[in-house]
Amino acid sequence: MLNDRHQFERRNAILRILRGGVVRRQSDLAQLLRRDGFDVTQSSVSRDLRELGVLKASGRYLVPPDEVSRANGDFGALAPFVRAIRPAGSSITVIRTSIGAAPSVAVAVDKAEWPEVVGTISGDDTIFIATSDGRSQRRLIQRLNTLFRS
Predict the structure, then answer these.
(1) pTM of the predicted model, to two decimals?
(2) Residue 66: how many CA atoms within 13 Å on its side-chain side?
(3) Which residue in 21, 103, 126, 143 has the fewest CB atoms around it within 10 Å?
(4) Domains of the chain
């Protein structure tokens, strides 16, 4: 129980640090956590970043949008990392992102639970989004363009 609480507090500290400034290396984050009284290692920081869904893009760590932001359709934090949105056939849409950004964008799309999305597959810089038909695909592309190109 104590371990779970410590992990919860450490992860909240990580989110606070990342929201408060630019962190470019895990070693820098570990040093900041140690200053806050947390006994951390490189592997514990790495595991925490992975579990929190933190994205590294443009040479810095970024906190993924929170549940409230996603529910409100605020994809603004991810928009700078989206490079292209294109149809591939009549039921697959491809999103190209900056290297390392695709997983965070795909999670945001999945969490939004849009009715036209059947499923997503994400790589490092590419996302495939399946829709049931061309009409759903057109709605999806319109939605994506509105969110990521505004």
Answers:
(1) 0.57
(2) 5
(3) 21
(4) 2-63 (1.10.10.10), 70-149 (3.30.1360.40)
